[in-house]
């Protein structure tokens, strides 16, 4: 859609602001469903299942963690869907501990997986 001026674009947005926000939310939810179907719906560390019903202040109990390195690209669903092999699903609690292990103990993702396996197998 080409607007002639910035004012035309601004007017379009103001007139359709509610629809645009609703559509953005719908697309975000659709992308999350696709990501869950590709990556899985259980925490890779503790095996808890993702619940999307509202729990306290967090709507989603799980998040996507980028396994290469400590810094995250923005939690953009399009980025996650473009590079799904770079991400794992983790619950919020495990996600916090993954970053503690990476930042404080300087562990990489492979070392964290080995630690997880040792804890599971005794």
Q: Which sequence of strands runs across the widest sheet? A: 1-2
Strand content: 5-15%
Radius of gyration: 19 Å
Shape: elongated
User: Which consecutive residue ranges, at least 5 long each, have pLDDT under 50?
Assistant: none
Care to give the gist of this entry?
Helix content is 53%, strand content 8%. It has 122 residues and is mostly helical.
SSE order and pairing:
Elements: H1 6-39, E1 62-66, H2 77-82, E2 87-91, H3 92-103, H4 109-121
Antiparallel strand pairs: 1-2
Q: What do these coordinates show?
A:
The chain has 122 residues and is mainly alpha-helical. The chain has one domain. 53% of the residues lie in helices and 8% in strands. The protein has four helices and two strands. Strands 1-2 form a two-stranded antiparallel sheet. It is elongated. The N and C termini lie far apart (60 Å).
Annotation keywords:
single chain, 122 residues, mainly alpha, two-stranded antiparallel ribbon, 4 helices, elongated
């Amino acid at each position: 859609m080409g607007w002639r001026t910035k004012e035309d674009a601004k007017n379009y947005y103001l007139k359709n602001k509610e629809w645009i926000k609703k559509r953005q939310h719908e697309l975000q939810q659709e992308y999350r469903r696709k990501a869950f179907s590709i990556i899985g719906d259980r925490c890779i560390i503790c095996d808890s299942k993702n619940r999307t019903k509202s729990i306290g202040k967090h709507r989603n109990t799980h998040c996507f963690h980028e396994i290469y390195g400590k810094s995250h690209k923005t939690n953009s669903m399009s980025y996650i869907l473009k590079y799904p092999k770079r991400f794992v699903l983790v619950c919020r609690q495990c996600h916090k501990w993954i970053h503690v292990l990476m930042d404080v103990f300087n562990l990489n993702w492979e070392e964290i997986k080995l630690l997880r396996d040792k804890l599971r197998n005794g």
